[in-house]
From TrEMBL:
<protein>
    <submittedName>
        <fullName>OmpA family protein</fullName>
    </submittedName>
</protein>
<dbReference type="InterPro" id="IPR006664">
    <property type="entry name" value="OMP_bac"/>
</dbReference>
<keyword id="KW-0732">Signal</keyword>
<dbReference type="InterPro" id="IPR006665">
    <property type="entry name" value="OmpA-like"/>
</dbReference>
<feature type="domain" description="OmpA-like">
    <location>
        <begin position="23"/>
        <end position="134"/>
    </location>
</feature>
<keyword id="KW-0998">Cell outer membrane</keyword>
<dbReference type="InterPro" id="IPR036737">
    <property type="entry name" value="OmpA-like_sf"/>
</dbReference>
<dbReference type="GO" id="GO:0009279">
    <property type="term" value="C:cell outer membrane"/>
</dbReference>
<dbReference type="InterPro" id="IPR050330">
    <property type="entry name" value="Bact_OuterMem_StrucFunc"/>
</dbReference>
<feature type="signal peptide">
    <location>
        <begin position="1"/>
        <end position="16"/>
    </location>
</feature>
<keyword id="KW-0472">Membrane</keyword>
<dbReference type="Pfam" id="PF00691">
    <property type="entry name" value="OmpA"/>
</dbReference>
Length: 137
């Protein structure tokens, strides 16, 4: 009897982690993406629109951190692309600050060059995430 009780007691954490049928686990925060032209860190009109949309979403979640991750395509030198990804992320962060997002909420992480699947444009981007505590380097 005692063994059954201990097994039942030990399984409580597992049962607590289960969701009921029909209950989906919470979705991860959406990722908004700003794309850049080759060798550029300048925000075009479309990029400014994405930043404005993200700023509105961030203002609706005043305590949530805002992650800004910069990327570059693999063409060129690694150091150049690391600096370019940093400039892209910094420019997006500056635009978010200009839209009223507190600097203390913004975390910038340049990722440097990354390969692309279909088009180089995929690698020339900044990802913006609201509500994630920390993104691994």
């Amino acid at each position: 009897m005692r063994r059954v009780f201990l097994i039942g007691l030990a399984s409580l954490p597992l049962l607590a982690a289960c969701t009921l049928p029909g209950e989906a686990p919470p979705a991860p925060p959406p990722v908004q993406v700003v794309f850049f032209t080759e060798d550029s860190a300048a925000l075009d009109e479309a990029a400014q629109g994405v930043v404005a949309q993200v700023a509105r979403a961030a203002q609706a979640q005043p305590g949530a951190p805002v992650q800004v991750l910069g990327f570059a395509d693999p063409d060129g030198g690694r150091a150049y692309n690391q600096a370019l990804s940093a400039a892209r992320a910094e420019n997006v962060a500056a635009a978010l600050r200009a839209q009223g997002i507190a600097p203390a909420r913004i975390r910038v992480a340049p990722r440097g060059p990354v390969p692309f699947e279909m088009m180089p444009l995929e690698s020339r981007r900044v990802e913006i995430r609201i509500g994630q505590e920390q993104v691994t380097p």
